[in-house]
Each structure stands twice: as C-alpha cells, then as structure tokens.
Amino acid sequence: VLGICYGMQLLNHHFKGTVEKKPAREDGQFPVDLSKGCKLFDGIGERSEVLLTHGDSVTKVPPGFDAVAHSGDLVVGIADESRSLYGVQFHPEVDLSVDGKAMLQNF
Questions:
Q1: Could you give the residue ranges of the DSSP H alpha helices within the chain?
Q2: What is the mean pLDDT of residues 58-63?
Q3: Is 101 helix (H, G, I), strand (E, B) or coil?
Q4: What does the pLDDT read at residue 20?
Q5: Are the beta carbons of 43 and 91 closer than 8 angstroms?
Q6: Are 57 and 20 in contact (CB under 8 A)?
Q7: pLDDT, position 76
Q8: What is the DSSP secondary-structure string of 53-67?
Q9: How far is the C-alpha of 98 from the C-alpha of 77, rounded, in Å?
Q10: Which residues are designated catalytic?
C-alpha cells in the first residue's frame, strides 16, 4: 500500500497514529529530508524537492511504523516495511516532485 497525501493521513490514523491540524499550511514545492535505508527512496539521496499541499499533519506515527521523510519538523513520510505499507504527505505523481517517478518505481 502507498498512501499519498490524505492517503498517508488515513493510513496513519487506521493504524492508531494521530493527525492534527497545524496553524500553518504547506502549499508548494519544498525540500524534504529522506531516511536512508527506506526502500521507497532507494537511489535518491538524503534530500528531494516535492509538492506538498496540506494543513493537517501526522503528530504520532503508529506502532510498527517509522517516520521516513520530514519537512522541517513535520513528518511527511511513514513506512512499515515489514508489511510493505508506505505513506507520503507529498505528491510523487507530479513533475514538481523531482524524484517522484523514482519513488513510484521503487514502490
């Protein structure tokens, strides 16, 4: 499963994580930090530019999941690789996400 944008929030909530409204939105292209070792980001590096459009954010990652991508102090990627469950707050399917196609191919 790959949850994109609201899909990540739904995945997070379903497995008992928390999502909360934040005072500031992220709308546009932003650099995000990617965790080494996450299969979704194989061959990409530690940082990438992505399209983010959200006002709600993951505030607690569910048991069994790791936070694998961050925009500043916000979690924008989660993974439970043992169950092949991934979520990204950004949109890998658009051209503004520079390495998005590689992420989708890795999935």
A1: 6-14, 100-106
A2: 97
A3: helix
A4: 94
A5: no
A6: yes
A7: 97
A8: EEEEEEEEPPTT-EE
A9: 16
A10: 5, 91, 93
